[in-house]
Design brief:
heterodimer, A: mainly beta, seven-stranded antiparallel sheet, 3 helices, 8% helix, B: four-stranded antiparallel sheet
Chain lengths: 292, 194
């Protein structure tokens, strides 16, 4: 197996607010060399690095907005998020939980700090990803996969050096808890000090890491500190991540969807005409209705 | 200034040669306003027409009770100004405020008058813009005095296809002259129909 080298290490950009509740660093698609096609099928990554939100009686967050043409994956590391959508669904994403929403043909949703958590405030840390859908599935029916932390399948590293939470895809023969439309691996590597994990994905799979906690070394030589993003090259399969201290690393690797991308705001389609149609449908209520 | 939206806006509307275009654009200033900042406040004299390169402006008036009434939104490629102030030199009754970080190009009224005298093509172009503006205002008045909330809303999304994503609901309701509750009801009814 050929080694997959590090292509780029990207530090967190200046944060911006999504609504008033998510203070995020965007990596995909706004960082240099991280446009939507480079990490396709992962076409957006917003990272709320650890941030202390003061107590607020009115939960902070982002109001009703639509999505079409992709899936949103929300991973909560600290804090709690409450969400509601136009199909009547909703729920709470607690620490360690993952919510996988297939917006596909279209949903309206809103996301806020969970109201009890909001009253106390505290440390908040989360990742939101947008996962592209192939053209044939872009207009399919919306659905949810709520994956509570204790339901996430795990692989335990030898000598109690940590564990790999397999959110989607497969690691060492253990399958992920979420189903995906195209081949995609999504793991939380929770490594203890001195722990090392080896990953191997087909060369053409676009692959990246985000260091959520701690400091790690990739392939024994590339030091990567907290809150940094690592784009792996498409020049090999296998790489290692070792932890200098207790660390959490989000690992993503997916087979590119070889189709054109037309994106505008919350819609990601294949053509401009489909974007115009999305606006038309949204304006005319075809995404349903959700109270602000 | 070749990469500005303004230049393609002009060349797509007016048969202007390159030198004239450059000279005209070079006489305009650009201004960046942060979200929430004002280009005009009530009581001031408005000196410019504002062309939106990137971002979003709104023009509104405050009533005696302090309630906002939105006359116009100006996203990319739109022009907004207070005609009574800029042309008739009266203190403005309006606010023009950025709803997003906005890059604008400022047209001084004197430049517009000068170009209109100097260049018949520019005069024709400016006439066309003014007539278009009057046409939109006539349509807006008719809708306000005769149309249902749903008809006003549907006209709004035809005119401003992407603003529903950029502007809070209460401001759209203010523009439409209806309450936020009515707008919510209209959108709910449309969703149920479709």
């Amino acid at each position: 197996m050929k080694t997959r080298e590090v292509e780029l290490v990207v530090g967190p950009r200046e944060p911006h607010y999504v609504g008033d509740g998510f203070r995020v660093h965007n990596f995909i698609p706004s960082a240099y060399r991280l446009d939507m096609q480079r990490m396709n099928p992962v076409i957006m990554m917003d990272y709320n690095s650890k941030f202390n939100f003061p107590p607020s009686v009115r939960p902070k967050g982002v109001g009703v907005h639509p999505h079409r043409g992709f899936e949103t994956v929300t991973i909560a590391y600290k804090g709690k998020i409450e969400h509601h959508d136009s199909s009547g669904g909703g729920g709470i994403i607690g620490e360690g939980d993952v919510q996988w929403m297939t917006a596909a043909g279209g949903v309206l949703h809103k996301e806020f700090h969970e109201s009890e958590w909001s009253k106390k405030g505290g440390e908040f840390q989360m990742v939101q990803l947008w996962i592209n859908l192939p053209a044939k599935d872009k207009m399919s029916k919306p659905k949810y996969q709520s994956i509570a932390n204790d339901k996430i399948n795990r692989f335990n590293l030898a000598d109690d050096k940590g564990e790999i939470e397999i959110i989607a895809g497969e690691y060492q023969g253990i399958k992920g808890s979420a189903t995906t439309f195209t081949p995609l691996h999504l793991f939380n590597a929770k490594l203890k000090e001195g722990g090392l994990a080896t990953f191997s994905f087909p060369t053409n799979f676009n692959t990246a890491l985000l260091v959520i906690e701690g400091n790690v070394v990739v392939n024994g030589e590339n030091k990567v500190p907290t809150d940094n993003f690592v784009l792996m090259a498409n020049d090999g399969e296998t790489f290692t991540v070792s932890a200098d201290e207790d660390s959490i690393v989000l690992v993503l690797s997916g087979e590119p969807i070889d189709e054109p991308i037309a994106a505008h705001g919350p819609f990601v389609m294949n053509t401009r005409a489909e974007i115009a149609q999305a606006f038309e449908d949204f304006n005319h209520g075809k995404f349903g209705f959700l109270e602000d | 200034m070749n990469n500005f939206r303004l230049t393609s806006f002009l060349t797509s509307n007016i048969d202007i040669d390159k030198n004239n275009l450059e000279s005209m654009v070079s006489q305009c200033k650009t201004k960046f306003v942060k979200k929430g900042e004002y280009l005009l406040k009530e009581g001031e004299k408005c000196k410019h027409s504002f062309f939106v390169e990137h971002g979003l402006l709104r023009q509104y008036a405050l009533d005696d009770k302090g309630k906002e009434h939105i006359l116009q939104f100006a996203p990319e490629n739109w022009i907004v100004t207070d005609r009574e102030s800029v042309y008739f030199d009266q203190p403005s009754a309006y606010y023009i405020q950025a709803l997003e970080n906005t890059n604008t190009i400022l047209f001084e009224e004197s430049l517009i008058l000068h170009l209109s005298k100097q260049d018949p093509l520019f005069l024709e172009f400016n006439n066309k813009l003014l007539h278009n503006h009057i046409r939109q205002l006539q349509r807006r008045i008719t809708l306000l005095i005769s149309a249902t909330a749903e008809e006003r809303y549907l006209d709004f999304v035809r005119l401003y296809p992407d603003l529903l994503l950029r502007v809070p609901q209460w401001q759209i309701a203010s523009y439409l002259g209806i309450t936020a509750e009515s707008l919510s009801r209209v959108r709910k009814e449309l969703a149920t129909k479709s």
